[in-house]
TrEMBL record:
Polar residues bias locations: 1-13
Keyword terms of this UniProt record: ATP-binding, Hydrolase, Nucleotide-binding
Taxonomic lineage from the root: Eukaryota, Fungi, Dikarya, Basidiomycota, Agaricomycotina
Family matches, as InterPro entries: AAA+_ATPase (IPR003593), ABC_transporter-like_ATP-bd (IPR003439), P-loop_NTPase (IPR027417), Type_1_exporter (IPR039421)
Organism, scientific name: Mycena sanguinolenta
Protein name from the UniProt record: P-loop containing nucleoside triphosphate hydrolase protein
Coiled coil start-end: none
SUPFAM superfamilies: P-loop containing nucleoside triphosphate hydrolases
Length: 711
């Protein structure tokens, strides 16, 4: 049997997080409920659904009221949504709606024509003289109807993709902007990130159009049928019982405020293992020969999941605990047939076989339309939610609050470097996983224009310091001052304009090599001369010449090609086409670092940089490459504040005004190379182990042809 309760424990280990425990396992089909003051937790398969108390406690009337209120609340955003789609192309919008409308109106016309045809035939049969001309007219009318339907269907299929494309691109643009404005902590926080997709816009549009046009169709059918002598208003009213019943009793999560999550270990394990099929893991999986292990772990997790269902939470929620509502709905669906059957028995003189056939036709037509209406309306809540989620994506609140002060301040010389001061700063990354803070009670001051080298063991907090200097994160305790004022007071866009960073986390964009460099200074992204200068400074000039298309080469062109059912021999020509299509080009790790470094040199050309942060950008560079890069960065950043984080710090330390030596999130030592060596502490020991080995073995070799370094 399908398990809708959440298992209290599993062979995969205890659930993580502080979730309330399941209390009721007796009735597998009625979700157990955990009570807290503010919300109730339902355990549905692998999911936990947290619902506000007032939502759960209501009866049918209260639930219907809640649904109505949610619809009223969603109305402004739905109106905005339709307004925007209309603006994208008023002609296509109106045409598509009219074509869709025809599909609904047609059903009434068909009823009318069939009704007429049956009656003409009945009269003909009774009188023994069929009215050929009337029958022909009715048949022609029917033929015209189906022809128009065929044409409108074709036109709808023809026009629909045109509007769909515009809608898709419009909302892709909207979501792209929503993502681009996120700060680091918000972007990294999977729970507050929007789950909206651009394709939801089109499906929501279609589903809302279908539901409202279906309603129009149904109302016109009802208007037509209620005016027919054989049917009348009572018959029509009876036909409405079923949809009303289903609408009122429907269990849906879409319009309810809720939080849903899974902490089922086996389910989460399955998701992780399934994601290992992505191409980015291929190299490691092949090299480590772990495909077999992944498969067996997947099977183990699948077995551990057992009968606990993992389907989407909204479908699970809509499953009723008893079939009573469905039985009632089916009975209600049979009421119209029952009505005319009883009527015919009670007043046989009023009915002929034709009128019974017509009533039967009305009844099944109404039943069909009502079923479809119910089906369409069951998607309305979902569509409202999707539309709201689409717009809410642009309103996700950034965790870092922007300041409003201009930077650089008018009272401070623009060409000077940035002064940075930390006062009792402590910082822990968001999330509960790490037990210790990354930085603990740190205080120091970097005067404007200083050259700072930060050294220390892995995980000692070096990169975290840089992330605070560039306000990727905010301090949780203590203050970070920039030019004497808290960093939070400045406008972030102003601060960013004065900073250049170079880390090994920087990525190559899926754009041309020229753009990859030029985007360091977006306003000059087309300035070939400037780009070539930056490429030279970053050590990437030779790389650009290596490719057939030079700086215009795109390393990772978007691949859209696919072949299907191609036989090696029979479809060789087609296979050749597929093989020749452009493929991804790899560059080495060192070449990537050179391109990224060139982007930083391009950024310097804005002439606004006051702070340069360099965080181990050269791990893949050979000693000469690294030395040259650091030398050029140092010369380019002359007079600005420069902060270097590196493990191979030998050749930088002689220029450093301040060396900050970190250990376990704290500043252990601070001073010049000479001071710290004399102290014979942490820095001196790091220097002796790393810098000397590096300089003696590698730099000495590299410098054999040309003396590059003097420590
Ligand atoms: N995004 C993150 N989320 C959570 N913890 C993080 C994050 N980044 C770093 N940490 C943790 O913060 C601590 C300091 O990390 P940081 O990257 O600053 O060290 P580091 O001195 O630069 O190390 P390395 O020399 O290895 O680059 C480490 O314990 C690390 O695990």
């Amino acid at each position: 049997m399908i398990q809708l309760t959440f298992p209290p424990s599993s062979s995969m280990g205890a659930p993580s997080g502080k979730s309330p425990k399941s209390t009721n396992e007796k009735d597998a089909l009625s979700p157990p409920v955990d009570e807290t003051d503010a919300f109730t937790t339902l355990n549905l398969g692998v999911w936990r659904v947290l619902l506000p108390k007032e939502i759960v406690s209501g009866g049918v009337i209260s639930t219907t009221k809640q649904k109505w209120n949610s619809i009223v609340l969603a109305y402004p955003v739905v109106r905005k949504f339709f307004g925007q789609i209309y603006q994208l192309s008023p002609q296509l919008f109106v045409l598509l709606i009219l074509l869709k409308l025809w599909g609904e109106v047609e059903s009434v016309l068909v009823l009318y024509v069939s009704d007429r045809l049956l009656r003409i035939i009945e009269v003909g049969l009774t009188e023994g003289r069929p009215d050929v001309s009337a029958i022909t007219q009715a048949l022609i009318a029917r033929l015209i109807c189906v022809t128009v339907t065929a044409v409108t269907n074709w036109a709808r299929e023809y026009i629909s993709p045109m509007l769909e494309d515009r809608v898709q691109l419009h909302f892709e643009d909207h979501l792209l902007q929503a993502k681009l404005r996120l700060d680091m902590p918000t972007a990294e926080d999977g729970n507050s990130r929007s789950k909206a997709h651009a394709y939801d816009a089109w499906s929501a549009f279609n589903s809302l159009c279908a539901a409202s046009l279906r309603l129009v169709g149904l109302l016109s059918q009802l208007a037509f049928i209620s005016r027919q002598r054989s049917a009348g208003p009572l018959f029509t009213l009876i036909a409405m019982v079923r949809p009303m019943l289903t609408l009122v009793s429907e269990r849906t999560l879409w319009l309810k405020p809720h939080v849903a999550y899974s902490d089922h270990p086996a389910y989460l394990r399955l998701q992780s293992l399934e994601s290992m099929g992505q191409s980015r893991f291929r190299g490691d999986i092949i090299a480590g020969d772990i495909a077999g292990w992944i498969t067996s772990e997947y099977h183990r997790a699948r077995d551990a999941l057992g009968n606990t269902v993992s389907q989407n939470v909204w479908s699970l929620y809509s499953i009723e605990s008893t079939p009573i509502n469905q039985i009632l709905a089916e009975w209600a669906g049979a009421l119209p047939t029952l009505y005319w059957a009883i009527s015919a028995m009670m007043a046989p003189a009023r009915f002929s076989m034709t009128s019974i056939a017509i009533l039967q036709q009305y009844s099944s037509s109404l039943n069909h339309s009502l079923q479809m209406l119910f089906w369409d309306f069951s998607g309305v809540g979902r569509s409202f939610t999707e539309i709201k989620v689409l717009y809410e994506a642009a309103e996700v609140k950034n965790q870092i609050v922007d300041g409003d002060m201009e930077y650089p301040r008018p009272d401070i010389e623009k060409s000077k470097g940035m002064e940075i001061e930390l006062r009792n700063v402590s910082f822990a990354y968001p999330g509960e996983k790490s037990k210790e803070a990354a930085l603990r009670d740190i205080s120091f001051r970097i005067p404007a224009g200083s050259l700072v080298v930060i050294v220390g063991a892995n995980g000692s907090g070096k990169s975290t310091l840089i992330k605070l200097f560039t306000r990727m994160y905010d301090t949780q305790q203590g203050t970070l001052l920039v030019d004497g004022l808290p960093i939070s007071e400045y406008r972030m866009a102003d601060l960013r304009r004065t900073q250049a960073t170079l880390t090994q986390d920087h990525k190559l964009y899926p754009l041309t090599l020229a753009e990859n460099i030029g985007l360091g200074y977006a306003e000059h992204v087309k300035d070939t001369e400037m780009i070539m200068e930056a490429a030279k400074d970053g050590g990437a000039a030779e790389l650009l010449e290596k490719f057939k298309d030079g700086a215009e080469t795109t390393l990772e062109p978007m691949t859209t090609a696919f072949g299907y059912q191609l036989d090696d021999d029979k479809h060789k020509a087609l296979k050749d086409v597929l093989t020749k299509l452009e493929k991804t080009t790899e560059v080495s790790g060192g070449e990537k670092q050179r391109l990224v470094a060139a982007r930083t040199f391009m950024r310097f050309k804005t002439k606004k940089i006051k702070l340069l942060c360099v965080d181990e950008p050269s791990s893949a560079l050979d000693p000469r490459g690294e030395f040259e890069l650091f030398e050029r960065l140092r010369q380019t950043g002359e007079g600005k504040t420069m902060v270097f984080v590196t493990h191979r710090f030998g050749h930088l330390t002689k220029h450093a005004d301040i060396i900050i030596c970190m250990k376990e999130g704290k500043v252990m030592e601070l001073g010049t190379h000479k001071d710290l060596m004399a102290r014979e502490g942490e820095y001196a020991s790091l220097y002796n182990v790393q810098a000397q080995a590096f300089t003696e073995a590698e730099v000495a070799n590299a410098a054999a042809s040309e003396p590059l370094v003097a420590l």
